[in-house]
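Protein modeling request. Please complete all fields; requests missing the sequence field cannot be processed.
Requester role: graduate student
Desired output: 3D structure, token encoding
Chains: 1
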Amino acid sequence: MTRHQSQLSVFNGLLSLFLLLLAPATLCAAGGQSLQSFLDLKPQWPDLVGSSFRIEGHYAILVRDSLRMKNCDLPFKASQPIKLVSSSKVIEVSGRLAKDMTSGKLYFEVEQVRQLPTDLQTLAERERAITRGTSKQWYELAEWAGPRGKFYNDEELLERAKLVNRKGLNLERQELKELTPATLRTLTSRISELGLEDSLRLDWLHESYWLEWEALQKSAPKVDLTVEDFDLKKDPVFQFLNRLDKDLPGAKTRVAEVLPLLANEYRRNSVLTYHNASDAKRRTLERLFHSDIATAAIARVTKPDDSNGSEIANRIDELIPEQHELAEKHRDAELTFLAKTSATLTRNQLGDLVQRCRDRKQPNLAKEAITRWLARREQSLRKDGVTGLIQLSDERLALLQDQPGAGALLLEALQLAPKNEDILERLKKLGYHEVNGQWVAPQLNPAAPNTPVPAVIETELERFIRLGVPKIGMTPAQLLKCLGSPQSLTRVATSGRVTETWTYRDGTTVRYSVTVERLPSRGTAEVKAVQ
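Delivered output (531 residues):
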């Protein structure tokens, strides 16, 4: 190493020592260096032998001319007995670091000991000094009391530090120019960092949500209920509800019953009622908050005509199952709507609706839906003459079990085609008899007034026709009975053969494409393919 490098090394060492000594000296001017900061210098103690310190902290043991500071293994020795007059364990020790020349161990050579007020007394005095101070001053005081209480394992001082932090937080809230959900939530996020109780965090968080809800009720745009497949995840009220459920612990916990008095009190003054409630009661209020928001959110997407009643009912059962009875009312309301508009349904849709009505013990609605659907079908099927009347009769019998009505339609068809075997066969199955050239209904047959109507035995093909499912082998007349008239029909004629494509649609979607093949030379026609 060169001479210049050696000098530079010595200079750097002296500079480091100067910086280490500067901090304690500065703190001494303010009333003594804390024992914690003195212990932070422990790795540098050997280099600081001979340096003077003024150290403030708790002593643990005092025996004549020697003492031990709490949480410190370094011996403190005086040249004469140390006398303390009060019960306070807080002292300020002035002296210097020294080294025993015999053992080589470090110790602190005490020159003076001054007894100080207890930490709690000091804290109270500093609190009085900043009674009308800023939130920053309270936080600084808590930053002194908290670590000190932790270092000395002083539970009372730790609790007082929390109170000081709370005073600072309350004062910071008062200092806000405007109390908004965002500013309040920012304060709320710091409560845990300050070591304050979670009940305060929930109190302010709940308040921030109420402030936001009050604003949202005025600003949320109305939902366009004409849009199909509306995405609820994009609705601001449903988004608000999802955040509420994540942040308030009781929001998603079902409550058996909320007393009306408590519910009224909460809705009248939500923030104050929640603030004064116990933890257990707060969970109930959080669920009530959730229920009110969920009710409002669901109401936004409920169509006035109840046409989406099932969807609404499912939402109620998902979000507020306590109101299952309300969900059932929406399901019934949707059935009522569908029954009133059943004339526009396809045969399959009608079957689904009828089954739903029967599952929900609503036979009158099922009958109303069928009656409306048949009335509309009659308008179009009557144009098909005999074939349409026969199909109407079959549908009335299959859907309503209305034997007199089915018979009346068959008799009307018989007037147009007296020799039609399909009509005669159906009349016989219904129990009609020919008397003096007139077909008589079973109950009016004088020969057998009490003869029961024979049960109609349904073939597999008749069952498919009743269910509205086209099958290969059906005749065009049977296909008409099954699905009615197609939305479009195309014909392709070749030598001795006519191929027809009957297309049935649900809106823009092709439901069935049926191929009918006619052989005019043989007088036959039947379904050859169904797609």
